[in-house]
Write a structure and sequence with these properties.
The chain is an alpha+beta fold. The protein is about 25% helix and about 40% strand. The protein has helices at about 1-20, 25-30, 90-100, 150-165; strands at about 35-40, 45-50, 55-60, 65-70, 80-85, 105-110, 115-120, 125-130, 140-150, 165-170. The chain has a seven-stranded antiparallel sheet with strand order 3-4-5-9-8-7-6, sandwiched between helices. The longest helix has 17 residues, at about 1-20. It is globular and about 40 Å long.
Length: about 170
Amino acid sequence: MRALSYLLSGFIGLVLVLSTDFDGKAKVWAQTVSLDWRVFEVPEHGTRVDYPARIFGPTGEPEKGIGQRFESADGSAVLSVYSSENEAADTPVSYLRKNLRRSGLDYERVTRSFFAISMERAGRIFYSRCNFSRSAKGSIHCFDLVYPQEEKRAWDPVVTRISLSLRPLER
């Protein structure tokens, strides 16, 4: 079922990318036919996420936690995948309360096991999702994505695929 979901997500994303033109960037994506989805893992914490290798290349360490920072070739988009121990035994609600002023958010979804937030500022979209391991002091598994607001429609299926693929691998 999950494989079918990824397949449909990729197909829908390709259709949207093929039908969208934002300064030629979406045309470049469409010409590649495939976004070359790959898996990135943080073995120390069991974090696993799919990312489009045709868009992003590794550029170093993320600002937070253990993981990887990726950037698009033109530098207009940045993806950071990271994880850390949940030493404070935070829940998604308590983590957000401690680390974020929530008044500026355009989108917020918080459950017992994850949060997803987004805001649009200065022509950029900032999206973040963190999944929390089942054990109280397990790990927090996150990604942050920043991309041009004018390309939102082309990015929507990419954001969805990355978000749905983020998994804590229980040890």
